[in-house]
Write a structure and sequence with these properties.
about 280 residues; alpha+beta; 3 domains; transcription cis-regulatory region binding; transcription regulation; AraC family transcriptional regulator
């Protein structure tokens, strides 16, 4: 059974604060989305469909087309602050992105991110997120990756693909980044960008933050990722090594061992069973 899609409470609080700053009737919108103030407290998980409904209610209440784009500063300052410290202190762009891909499922599993060569792919998990959420995700990635490397977005990315309904295209073009329309967002890094050292690299701080992110919530995130692995294995269109890489395992053997411990069979055995005719 696949894990239910969620958005962490901290990120949801950022959405609510932005809506309030736009003069929207937050209390009414929360009620329409079936959200209670109690759900917004602490570090819990909020069902993604409720958050998506909240974004839809914001749009219906008059939020502008660029509402999601304007979320980016708040996401960096508040909801993702702890994660940003971890990513900023990594040794290189590649190391930073590896941490992001690995720990994003603790923040939200609505959007899946993978690195294929020098291209960052974004995919939906179980449903299509509201374009406000996609705008915030794409622009946050572009801006923060460039900031960490001490470069401009145009120096770090040769092209970014966005959905036709997204508003992020204009922002990216203003930043000097080429934009194309696609069925799902992806970000093409410039040659050599992945190997750039980060000016803010700090091994001691990075290890300290890494231990924090590997703490209590990591076992739940790992279990969720293995449930997702079953979904990909059953689909049968990706090599096991590729699935291991997408889930953040440096060695396929570690993925195989974790999968067998969780489900009692190897990924190959599970795939063969899943692909057999009923």
């Amino acid at each position: 059974m696949l894990a239910s899609p969620f958005v962490c409470a901290a990120l949801t609080r950022t959405l609510v604060a932005h809506a309030q700053g736009c003069g929207l009737p937050v209390d009414v919108l929360l009620q329409r989305a079936g959200l209670t103030p109690t759900q917004l407290h602490g570090h819990g998980q909020i069902p993604a469909m409720q958050v998506e409904q909240l974004l839809l209610e914001c749009e219906l209440a008059g939020a502008g087309r660029e509402f999601g784009c304007e979320l980016v500063p708040g996401m960096a300052t508040h909801s993702l602050q702890g994660l940003n410290i971890l990513l900023d202190s990594a040794a290189s762009v590649r190391d930073s992105l590896a941490c992001f891909i690995r720990y994003l499922p603790l923040v939200t599993n609505c959007v899946l991110v993978s690195l294929d060569g020098a291209q960052l792919h974004m995919r939906r998990y179980q449903h299509q997120p509201h374009y406000y959420m996609l705008d915030a995700a794409v622009l946050s990635l572009v801006r923060n990756i460039a900031r960490r490397a001490g470069r401009t977005p145009a120096q770090m990315f040769t092209q970014v693909s966005v959905l036709p309904q997204q508003a992020a295209g204009r922002w990216l073009q203003d930043w000097g980044v080429a934009v194309v329309s696609a069925q799902w967002p992806s970000l093409q890094l410039a040659p050599g960008a992945l190997e750039l050292d980060l000016p803010g690299a700090n091994a001691f701080l990075h290890q300290s933050m890494l231990r924090q992110w590997q703490g209590a919530g990591m076992s739940e995130a790992r279990e969720d990722s293995l449930q997702l692995a079953r979904h990909w294995l059953a689909a049968g269109d990706q090599p096991i090594e590729r699935i291991a890489e997408r889930l953040g395992y440096r060695q396929p053997s570690n993925f195989i061992r974790a999968f067998r411990k969780q489900f009692g069979v190897t990924p190959k055995q599970f795939r063969l069973s899943a692909l057999q005719p009923a």
